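User: Can you fold this complex?
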Amino acid sequence: MEKVTMADVAREAGVSKSTVSQFLNKRYEYMGEKTKLKIEAAIERLGYQPNFIARSLKQKRTSMVGIIVANIMHYLSTEISRAIEDFCQDHDLHAIVCNADDDPEKEKRYIEMLRAKQVDGLIIFPTELNTELYAGMIKEGYPVVFVDRKVEMLDAFSVVTDNRESTYKAIQSFIANGHRHIAFAVQPLIVSTRKERLEGYKNAMVEAGLPIRPEFIIESSIGEMKRKLEELFSLEDPPTALFAGNDRVFLTVVEFLKGKGLKIGQDVDLIVFDNIPFANLMDKPISFIMQPATEMGMKAAELLFDQINKVEKEPQKFIFPSEMV
Amino acid sequence: MEKVTMADVAREAGVSKSTVSQFLNKRYEYMGEKTKLKIEAAIERLGYQPNFIARSLKQKRTSMVGIIVANIMHYLSTEISRAIEDFCQDHDLHAIVCNADDDPEKEKRYIEMLRAKQVDGLIIFPTELNTELYAGMIKEGYPVVFVDRKVEMLDAFSVVTDNRESTYKAIQSFIANGHRHIAFAVQPLIVSTRKERLEGYKNAMVEAGLPIRPEFIIESSIGEMKRKLEELFSLEDPPTALFAGNDRVFLTVVEFLKGKGLKIGQDVDLIVFDNIPFANLMDKPISFIMQPATEMGMKAAELLFDQINKVEKEPQKFIFPSEMV
DNA sequence: TTGTAGGCGTTATCAC
DNA sequence: GTGATAACGCCTACAA
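Assistant: Here's the predicted assembly.
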């Protein structure tokens, strides 16, 4: 029943606990060859497995990190998480993933929970609404890395993409293709990424001398969005091009267009911020702004790893470029 | 620096550690109202956070479970994992996901690792090649649930789908649609699911009086598969219908057909075992055999939860039906 | 080289 | 109602 403890091994091998401990920690520099063998045999015979919990308590290191994802429904999140997990597996860490569901309260509870569990560090896709909590951790020197969204006014490690620039270029490409009626759909502007994307849109429009028409900008929850789209496409001069602010918006848009009988690439052109899996399988002329998820995850994990291992570094923001395909 | 311990709180509040402990565990039945307030205040003032590791050591319960996925590349795995995670979040458990990468050695290491970390139970998508290890855990009474693939000869909880039946029906539907040249592509037959699916294919073919032609059955790794497909479609009588044994095979097949210029639903009909995300977005006439991932994950998590909480039950296999869409 | 003792932060068991 | 005290299983000086 997995009750074999170090003491048992010690007794079985006829040595003391400390000796066994030394053995386990590979400090057998000054250890008799025969004691080593005795211990090995005893471990084998008893089927002993060290207890990491006990070790962690003593060492104050759990080899676990927490990942708090703002919303797991975004495909990007899972991609980045997976990259982080891969990095962890290569560095003897285990990751615990939590989904904050875009709820700051939930995020807060998870942060506290994971810290109570003594995880060695946290990678957070922030809801951006727990600034004091974030700040507190950073002041303490607790290892934290923010991903995807940036937390303003906070000198912390973060890994993001150039939302504004990418969107700006995307809208420019619409314009270059002759579009004049360009709409923009996004979820509520409560996080930096969405705001930046909208700014990119506006910049490009203004620069091209096109009017920014409020009725062409949908800002609503996924639930409400279909209704808003209905309104948008009921205008006497409906848009010929649409920018979807992220993957979930995109899904909603596609469903809407399908129901409406509008053909993508024909009746309306589409650019999406975010990649979706197997996008290449649906041969429709849609452009996706792909963020380098793997690189971002890797970088975030690496930054966290270094903090955990006390590699001194100034907090930095890493901005990755996105690519339109 | 997060060094506030229970002793500090006790001192600050002018009570003993035990009292604080009682308070934390909500056993304030026989506790003075004012002590309660004093402790509350002290906790607040010090910013105390209990240390779960220490608690776990004492209670021999970590509130963590491990999920060992045979191969995270299968979309089904991630779907099921997510369902498990959801269940865990509702039951105060944390899940740690590990990817065995179809490697029995890796699987073994993870099992040992997670047990060393004292996780309360394990949900395993087995590689099926560590039978002794599985058997050992079960004999010990350690909570384990197998998912997706079954482990023969083992009396354990498991949650699977009716691979043979579903495939059988799928092939029947091909036949009903007039197909005679039906091919079957699958990864190496080293796990039960694949074997069962092939059996289903053979049964349907035999029953319909159609010959089982070895050259119509591709059994190969993903890497080799394109070459095999090339051969298959170079036959003087190439197949008019193809059954893809899982999602990864499907992706390979689609790429191949695309390169070859063959149109799905026109030159060749396709049925795929497994769902892929956003399948509804690609309006091609492909049938997917969808496994009820969420239900399977939920069930698995529930079975594990009950074992952890010593709800006595006989080991059972739950076989979920799949649906073709 | 190996053993002894104390401590990591909690919880559990009793006395008080 | 509250408080010593002994575990939990391991690590780490330091002593032998």
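Residues 75-90 of chain A form the longest helix (16 residues). Chain A touches chain B at residues 1-2, 49-54, 56-57, 62, 64, 72, 75, 78, 82, 85, 89, 94-99, 112-113, 115-118, 140-142, 251, 254, 276-278, 281-283 (CB under 8 Å).
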